[in-house]
């Protein structure tokens, strides 16, 4: 952890100093963009809060220190007390004071729900927030970052000139890998804004050991954070790396530039951003985050079921309908049509997704997809036949007994990409043995969501893969992996307390492989039942 106390120097790129200069570059947002806010949490907003497992929170301590972090850990962590008030736990020892702002994430969904308000009373360790506005924010930041896609290999961090907060432990590596962050700013009155920022590769460009640049690419021309920086240059941000539970916290002072030479270094396919936010960093630190870890954002079973609410298109349309009196006649007619025709939000989703991709391609992006275009594979189903297997590398081999060894697998690039599955599911290992493809199913012997997958293999006499695993496989070798697969696991409404007793070797339900047998007995503590799994049917009998 390092903290910088020096004010920004006078040298460097030209700074924009007026709202007129910003508007001349970005333009003014259209009427619909300005009329999508409501002043309370309606039923749709409350549904989002009930489903969201984590939110970005921007606030200031009682001493005025700007902070941004991620809070929550499980759906429903934000407790709604009335349409105008909800409460949540702010990490100790910090105390939120004055204006606060949040955006609520739904795993696998592009849009976020932004909520601004004022920190009120703090009771029983929770901070109450009085709501001033709520609205649906577009999916462009999530799409740009690929937040819900499999993590990409991180680039090596660039060498930093001189010292500074960004040279602290792990900061440079985290910035090089982070495609997504939450940026918090405040105006001179009682307003706060925390907005998502995303980009392909690293979302923040490191200029030196104390300076960052965030590209401001073309969007809906809503520039709340830029206007806030003109009034109060203190800001903070919290960055994420998909697959990791750590968070990078940065605070400092911001300035806006249109310096052509700097913008050109952030161009995509020859298209530079129209502005950049320069951050003179005063503090930078990578810490663990209990909310991100508990939310398990990048595991398959944590994803929001696309067949259930909340419908972000319907929610945004409902907010516009509530403000239809302030819209033009044509816009108001379109909004009424979309909110009255059954299935209109589904049609709207397709149109909006195409508009997202079209706009982002004009910014220079390619190979993009919307989260809804490629929903995560449901837990308990094998991957599609045409999809390639996941490549893994043998990191370590542990000899448990003379005839049993554990294979520790990881991504070949060494990324911290988690292996998500539900207890009871299995993985199919694919290997080339003597020139032939061999597939075998094994249950994991590691915890769900870990960045390394452990499979324990007993040598079976005459077994093709088990013999190869014991006598031919070495650390550094590559394998293919499919899954997780299988439906032999607890359901969505399983008992609160469950004891599972398993006996045998190679206890993989759903597929017989080299003599694997499963016996699984479940004892809900409220009563006693007996379930013996049939490995041929993957179902209790």
Task: Characterise the protein shown here.
With 541 residues, the protein is of the alpha+beta class. It is 19% helix and 34% strand. It has 12 helices and 26 strands. It has helices at residues 19-26, 31-34, 43-51, 140-145, 171-177, 224-231, 260-264, 290-295, 312-322, 329-340, 344-362, 464-471, and strands spanning 2-3, 15-16, 54-60, 66-72, 79-82, 85-88, 97-105, 112-123, 126-137, 180-186, 192-198, 204-208, 211-216, 234-240, 246-257, 275-288, 390-401, 404-410, 426-433, 436-443, 453-458, 478-485, 498-503, 519-524, 533-534, 539-540. The strands form 5 sheets. Strands 1, 2, 10, 11, 12, 13, 14, 15 and 16 form a 9-stranded antiparallel sheet that branches. Strand 14 (234-240) and strand 15 (246-257) form a beta hairpin. The longest helix is centred in the middle third of the chain and has 19 residues, at 344-362. The model is unreliable at 1-9, 373-386 and 509-541 (pLDDT under 50).
Please render the helix and strand layout as text:
Blueprint: E1 2-3, E2 15-16, H1 19-26, H2 31-34, H3 43-51, E3 54-60, E4 66-72, E5 79-82, E6 85-88, E7 97-105, E8 112-123, E9 126-137, H4 140-145, H5 171-177, E10 180-186, E11 192-198, E12 204-208, E13 211-216, H6 224-231, E14 234-240, E15 246-257, H7 260-264, E16 275-288, H8 290-295, H9 312-322, H10 329-340, H11 344-362, E17 390-401, E18 404-410, E19 426-433, E20 436-443, E21 453-458, H12 464-471, E22 478-485, E23 498-503, E24 519-524, E25 533-534, E26 539-540
Antiparallel strand pairs: 1-16, 2-15, 3-4, 3-7, 5-6, 6-9, 7-8, 8-9, 10-11, 10-14, 12-13, 13-16, 14-15, 15-16, 17-18, 17-22, 18-21, 19-20, 19-22, 23-24, 25-26
């Amino acid at each position: 952890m390092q903290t910088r106390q020096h004010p920004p120097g006078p040298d460097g790129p030209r700074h924009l100093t007026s709202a007129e200069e910003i508007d001349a570059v970005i333009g003014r947002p259209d009427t619909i963009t300005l009329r999508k806010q409501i002043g309370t949490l309606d039923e749709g907003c409350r549904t989002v809060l009930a489903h969201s497992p984590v939110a970005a929170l921007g606030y200031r301590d009682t001493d005025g220190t700007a902070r941004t972090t991620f809070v929550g850990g499980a759906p429903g962590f934000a407790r709604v007390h009335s349409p105008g008030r909800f409460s949540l736990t702010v990490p100790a020892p910090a105390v939120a004071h004055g204006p606060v702002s949040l955006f609520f994430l739904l795993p696998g969904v592009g849009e976020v729900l932004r909520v601004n308000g004022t920190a009120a009373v703090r009771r029983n360790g929770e901070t109450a927030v009085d709501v001033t506005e709520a609205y649906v924010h577009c999916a462009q930041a999530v799409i740009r970052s690929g937040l819900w896609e499999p993590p990409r290999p991180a680039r090596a961090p660039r060498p930093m000139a001189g010292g500074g907060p960004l040279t602290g432990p792990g900061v440079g590596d985290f910035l090089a890998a982070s495609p997504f962050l939450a940026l918090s700013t405040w105006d001179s009155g009682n307003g706060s804004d925390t907005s998502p920022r995303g980009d392909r590769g690293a979302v923040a460009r490191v200029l030196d050991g104390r300076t960052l640049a965030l590209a401001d690419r073309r969007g809906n021309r809503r520039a709340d954070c830029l206007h806030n920086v003109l009034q109060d240059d203190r800001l903070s941000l919290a960055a994420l790396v998909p697959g990791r539970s750590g968070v990078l916290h940065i605070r400092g002072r911001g300035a806006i530039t249109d310096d052509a030479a700097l913008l050109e270094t952030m161009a995509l396919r020859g298209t530079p951003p129209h502005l950049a936010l320069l951050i003179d960093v005063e503090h930078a630190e990578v810490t663990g985050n209990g909310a991100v870890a508990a939310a398990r954002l990048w595991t398959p079973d944590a994803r929001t079921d696309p067949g259930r609410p909340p419908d972000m298109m319907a929610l945004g349309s409902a907010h516009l309908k509530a403000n239809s009196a302030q819209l033009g006649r044509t816009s108001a007619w379109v909004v009424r049509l979309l909110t009255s025709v059954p299935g209109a939000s589904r049609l709207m989703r397709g149109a909006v997704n195409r508009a997202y991709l079209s706009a982002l391609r004009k910014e220079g992006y390619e190979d993009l997809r919307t989260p809804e275009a490629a929903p995560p594979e449901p837990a308990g189903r094998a991957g599609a036949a045409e999809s390639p297997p996941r490549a893994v590398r043998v990191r370590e081999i542990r000899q448990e007994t003379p005839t049993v060894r554990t294979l520790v697998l990881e991504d070949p690039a060494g990324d911290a990409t988690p292996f998500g599955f539900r207890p009871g599911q299995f993985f199919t290992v694919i290997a080339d043995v003597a020139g032939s493809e061999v597939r075998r199913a094994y249950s994991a012997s590691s915890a769900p969501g870990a960045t390394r997958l452990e499979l324990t293999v007993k040598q079976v006499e005459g077994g093709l893969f088990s013999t190869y695993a014991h006598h031919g496989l070495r650390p550094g070798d590559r394998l293919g992996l499919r899954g997780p697969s299988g439906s032999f696991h607890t359901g969505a409404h399983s008992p609160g307390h469950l004891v599972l007793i398993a006996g045998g070797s190679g206890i993989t339900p759903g597929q017989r492989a080299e003599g694997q047998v499963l016996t699984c007995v479940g004892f809900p503590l409220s009563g006693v039942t007996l379930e013996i799994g049939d490995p041929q049917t993957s179902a209790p009998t």
